[in-house]
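--- STAGE predict ---
source: upstream dedup step, 1 unique chain passed
mode: sequence only
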Amino acid sequence: MNELYMAVTIVDRKFIRKFASFYEEMELPVSAITLGVGTASSQVLDYFGLDGSERGVMFHFVTKSKWKQVKRQLQLQMKIDLPGVGIAFIIPISSIGGKRALEFLTCGQEFVKGEESSLKDTKYELLVAIANQGYMEQIMDAARKVHAAGGTVIHAKGTGGAHAEKFLGVSLVPEKEMVFIVAKTEHKKAIMESIMKEAGIKTEAKAIVFSLPVTDTAGMRLLDEFEMDEL
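--- STAGE serialize ---
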């Protein structure tokens, strides 16, 4: 199976446009872009040729074979290995909510859906919903109906509007919000289905949801206690 991953690229803010154009050239127009601030020690920053300035964080979706192409061009064309440019890495995706969302996010990459998770026996999953700005409460209300305790919201800018018209049949506004929800694996499907029903592509929220396997956790005792109180 050609496994599916979320590619995360972190670059100096001044390189955001350059890397966005690069991913367009690589036929990966769909992404979410947000800003962050570097927090590494001065010694580490000096080693990588970075400063403490703002970073651009870019999220894309790639198959294993596509990542090999992208990685090579990141090194050859974008010189990502040079100090001061940035880093990129991939995280395996467990599942994506809905066939149309899968087609939209993969941008026509050849992908044969197989077993849901490439990491087995994970107790928790990280659910990520990307939606139009202003609909996070709608998403969280849908998630809370089926055992979700809470989430964290990040503001982002979406790309791939023309691509959305083709695969989803809808237009998407660029202003996005991403919500991160950690949930037990056995509740993942119900939460994703609830979000898709209450805030999915057919609603004003236009949410797309996917999940990432979590291999280990700390500080999840309160979530277990919250679920016990719900029983």
